[in-house]
Amino acid sequence: MEVIKMSKYNTIEVWNKIFGNKTEIYDYAGRLIKKSACGNPYSKFFPTIDHIRPLSRGGCDILANIIICHRDTNEEKGDSFPHWMANGRRYLAMRIRGTRNEYEIYEQE
């Protein structure tokens, strides 16, 4: 399995593009992450970059396929796609109609 690590600069760059000036948000699984924790893996609010469709499963390394989520959410999802569990909930990624590489994440009941 290939592991790709993103630098603090890249995480902050992606954060700024997605969340602008927000300093903290909840990821799709409901976990709090903070911009100030970028690059600090010891923080309980550590944000990570995750590919919705993993590169190992044919995903592209483009912004449309990237989300920022809590380290624990990322670890629980791993390389699972299109179904996975995170924070005790089930999720499904579906390609956005009319696109080739953009996905939306839906919580399943």
Q: How would you portray this structure in words?
A:
- This protein is α+β, with helices and mostly antiparallel strands.
- The chain has one domain.
- It is 17% helix and 30% strand.
- The chain is built from 2 helices and 7 strands; from the N terminus they run αββββαβββ.
- It has a 3-stranded antiparallel sheet with strand order 5-6-7, with helices on one face. A two-stranded antiparallel sheet has the order 1-2.
- A hairpin with a 5-residue loop joins β1 and β2.
- It starts with 7 loop residues before the first helix and ends with a strand.
- The relative contact order is 0.18.
- The model has no long low-confidence stretch (mean pLDDT 91).
Strand order, largest beta sheet: 5-6-7
Number of strands: 7
Uncertain residue ranges: none
Q: Percent range for helical residues?
A: 10-25%
Shape, per Cα inertia axes: globular
**Strand share of the residues?**
25-35%
Summarize the main sheet: 3 strands, antiparallel
- Total domain units: 1
Distance between the termini: 31 Å
Element-by-element helix/strand order: HEEEEHEEE
* Overall pLDDT level: 91
Indicate the structural class: alpha+beta
Give the helix tally: 2
Radius of gyration: 13 Å
